[in-house]
Amino acid sequence: MEAVNGSDFGEVLEQCPPGLLLPFLEESNWRVSVRATLYIMGLLYCFLGIAIVADVFMGAIEIITSKTRKVYLASNTQGQDSEVVEVRIWNDTVANLTLMALGSSAPEILLSCIEIIGKNFEAGELGPGTIVGSAAFNLLIISAVCVGGIPEGETRSIRMIKVFGVTTVFSLLAYIWLLVVVAITSPGEVAVWEAVVTFMLFPLLVIVAFATDRGFICGVTREPGQKQIELEQPDGDKMISKRGFFKNGVLEKDALVAFVKEVKKYPGLSDEDAALLAAQKLVESQPHSKMWYRIGAVRNLSGGRKTQLKLTKKLKEVYDTINEHPEAPNLGPVPETDMSNAIIEFHATTCAVAENIGKFPITISRHGNIEETAKVRIESIDGTATEIEDYIPVDQIITFEPKELQKKVEIEIVDDNQWEPDEEFFLKLSLIPSEDNTNVQLGHMSIMEITILNDDEPGVLSFSKRGILVQESIGMARIPVVRTGGADGEVSVKWRTKDKSAFSGKDFIGGEGILTFQHTETERILEIPIIDDMEPEKDEHFEVELFEPMGGAKLGNIARLAVTITNDDAYNSITDHLMKMTNANMDAMRTHQDTWACQMRDAMNVNGGDLENATNIDYLMHFLTFGWKVIFSFIPPPSLLGGWPCFFVSLAMIGVITAVVGDLASIFGCLVGLEDSVTAITLVAMGTSLPDTFASKAAAVQEKHADNAIGNITGSNSVNVFLGLGLPWLMAALYHAANGTVFKVPSAGLGFSVVIYTAVALMAILLLMLRRQLSIFGKAELGGPFWPRVFSVCCLVGLWFLYVTLSSLQAYNIIKVHF
């Protein structure tokens, strides 16, 4: 294709040849600048369309690959029924290298096929260039983003390293074979047998990778009599246990109750908050594929329905604390506090201070084991109040010496002499991992909320509500007492329990005492032990009364609270309600919808209808992508007929948009003077790989291993060659053989690009392997110490620029090569 040239960019000197579908109108008399602007905007818009329809396509793939079959396992205990498990029919490795690889590589593969067909089965530069350019972008840029995107101090390693090794070898073999075909065995042409071999390397890759995954190659064979079916095999078929947290896709009640009980130990959280946190925990506890992260990335990019819940800052802090806490790590039973450990927590969960207070102390308490030195970190986190502007940030290590029960930490508030509404920020305790600090754990009050207000009164003391409901087996009723209307000075209030239908000593352990609020504290928790007598009873209740406030405080309107102890039947209605709310939150994060109506509703509404959590960017991107969303909402839902109608219809739509992309890229390159090969390795490769970049970054941050981030890059690159070049070459070679002609493929440009890519790919893989072995990099492919991580990122990005630069110089004959 000849480019438009001349000093006046607005004057057409050369006529760009038409593409397969474009142009729709007669454009030859338009200014080149106008045409180039329209074509680049159209190209970017089509990239968005491909990303969105690929979201639907991958929803179908998820349905297809998630099919299961029931397997019955004999029980070891005589008289018990056989255990039933559901086994996924698709092996993870096979699914990743076939349907999932097709999902992420469909645009590149279809572009190569469409270009061949559109040129009457003659070779073009756009398809092969995109294949090699995407491989370079995936291996170098996506790896660089993942290496640098890990939070500081963390690392991620590839878990299925054997499968990664197989796909890496095949990816290098693919491009070496490509060079052999175009430059050695039959320079400038592709014979039928060469096309057949190229295509057949794809099933060979799948077979070898599957055999390696199952341990048949480079693995340990199974012992005689070893159980052939394992629950949650790390490198094999994933199995869904009926003993786990789900049954037929529904959350188990006991697991939910255990988690909610742990959540409710943090004051101020409602049932809705607990259900939201439970749904988030369930989503994170499930295994996710690269496809799930890609769908999430595309929806974030297009303002669509999110695959993860949006938590408020306070809920996020509580959730992070629960995850760090030794209690309830996987929605399992909550262990009792280990009194052999030092238990460290704040004295209160909230406090309020006047803006002009300057500096004030907060108290951190220790109980349990007080015989040893214990350390925790305290740090501040912005809420509506921001550091520097409203308060001085805190980040320090607190050390408790033996026998020391309390530590004071000074907090400083900034008085800016401007009126502002009440604002809040948070203090958070976290553990310090070290060999001499192992017997330390956080208490329930590991997050403190500090409210900045304009009030210096002692305050009003009262209960936050008139009654609470607790289960008989709860162990401890936690009753919040709040201080409103001021928080100046130390105040106290007496409390006592009063028997009603529940009796002290039989149903609960009552008594009386004094509850003290230190200066600035605004909430304290009163704990009343509940006795579980394991006998069926009607609901019983007792009362707790506040009286005789001291220190200038006053009693509020709610000075008496009723505690109702429910039996299990009454409590079931509460847990059923929590189950419904949790499942509703789970449904909101599904990657696909079951009906056309639901698909259209999601397409018509920003953020899938969740307007409360929609951002300005969501509204903007929803407006820009609205047309695509409405069109693709007519694709059959993935739940219809096992996902196959959705699979083929969405694949056809990807093909149509890809054909338009090919024309847009080719004509745009002609208008601005870019060779097809340069356009392919830059604009088209980056445009089709951008969703994978965001998906890999998200997987790198959220996953414990690097497999979903970079582990399948080499496999995807192999599939690109074997299908993206093998399939169109096979069609073209057979067509020419039938017509007695030869299928010619220019060897200079493609051969040189393959040589450069193979060289930089070898260096990139060597760098990743060195990162895995050397302690200076943290012995992991991703993350690690700051400067070695920066060095790795610079190396990978530099290799990509080297590849693009050398390939572009060759395309313009500045570098001359002969194959």
From TrEMBL:
Compartment(s) where it occurs, according to its Swiss-Prot or TrEMBL record: Cell membrane
Gene3D superfamilies from the UniProt entry: 2.60.40.2030, NCX, central ion-binding region
InterPro entries recorded: CaCA, CalX-like_sf, Calx_beta, Na_Ca_Ex, NaCa_Exmemb, NCX_ion-bd_dom_sf
Listed name of the protein: Calx-beta domain-containing protein
GO cellular component, one term: sarcolemma
PANTHER family per UniProt: CALX-BETA DOMAIN-CONTAINING PROTEIN, SODIUM/CALCIUM EXCHANGER
GO biological process: calcium ion import across plasma membrane; cell communication
Family: Belongs to the Ca(2+):cation antiporter (CaCA) (TC 2.A.19) family. SLC8 subfamily.
Phylogenetic lineage: Eukaryota, Metazoa, Ecdysozoa, Arthropoda, Hexapoda
Keywords (A to Z) from UniProt: Antiport, Calcium, Calcium transport, Calmodulin-binding, Cell membrane, Glycoprotein, Ion transport, Membrane, Metal-binding, Repeat, Signal, Sodium, Sodium transport, Transmembrane, Transmembrane helix, Transport
Reactions accelerated catalytically: Ca(2+)(in) + 3 Na(+)(out) = Ca(2+)(out) + 3 Na(+)(in)
Membrane topology: Multi-pass membrane protein
Membrane spanning residue stretches: 38-61, 97-118, 130-151, 163-184, 190-212, 619-635, 647-674, 719-738, 750-770, 790-815
Domain of life: Eukaryota
Residues of the Calx-beta domain: 330-430, 448-547
Single annotated GO MF: metal ion binding
